[in-house]
Amino acid sequence: MKIIAGLGNPGKQYDRTRHNIGFEIVDLLSARLNIPLAQAKFKGVYGIGHVDGQKVLLLKPLTFMNLSGESIRAVIDYYDAGLDDLLVIYDDLDLPVGKIRLRQKGSAGGHNGIKSTIAHLGSQEFNRIRVGVGRPPNGMNVPDYVLSRFLTEEQEVIDKVAEQCADACEAWLQKPFLQVMNEFNQ
């Protein structure tokens, strides 16, 4: 089983914000793969389907960003999945808007959702897709920035990047993550 978790915050007020890009990509995958996110458990919403014989679970933790690891750990434990079968998608302030970076391990880099995930998994070694949302403009604090929506000129770029991230997720269902990294890292 492959588990793809997109990080974000629940609630309409957070829709389409920078911090919710992980949720957006999981929603896109849900539509593409015809895997409805219709089940609630593991402190999240999820759906399970099959893609070319591969069992796939799509997850959106509903714990709020800072506790994302609780939901991810619950899924890993319930399905007795290995960390190599997990892919986490999240926003990254250190990458410019529209840049993505796939990695197999690493620190949280200040991202509270990833801090929580690392703490609950007891490891930094899990697959991830970091989606660049850029740095806040001078004078704007980080929480306000990540909870803001993309500017009109950024949204077109983000829509294309979301498709590219979904492509990378689909590629991972068929290929080793290292190969997918080589294909999709820009």
Please explain how this structure is put together.
The structure is a single chain. The chain is an alpha/beta fold. It has a single domain (2-184), classed as Peptidyl-tRNA hydrolase (Rossmann fold, 3-Layer(aba) Sandwich). The protein has helices at 21-33, 68-79, 112-121, 142-146, 152-172, 177-184; strands at 2-6, 39-41, 44-51, 54-61, 86-92, 100-103, 127-132. It has a 7-stranded mixed beta sheet with strand order 2-3-4-1-5-7-6, sandwiched between helices.
Superfamily at the CATH H level? Answer: Peptidyl-tRNA hydrolase
Largest sheet: 7 strands, mixed
Domains counted in the coordinates: how many?
Answer: 1
- The CATH C-level class name: Alpha Beta
Bin the helical content.
25-40%
The residue ranges in which pLDDT falls below 50 over 5 or more consecutive positions are: none
Structural class: alpha/beta
Architecture (CATH level 2) name: 3-Layer(aba) Sandwich
What share of the residues does DSSP label as strand, in percent? 15-25%
Cα-atom radius of gyration: 15 Å
Secondary structure: number of strands: 7
CATH fold name:
Rossmann fold
Could you give the distance between the termini? 28 Å
Major sheet: arrangement of strands = 2-3-4-1-5-7-6
SSE string, helix = H, strand = E? Answer: EHEEEHEEHEHHH
Number of helices: 6
The geometry reads as: globular
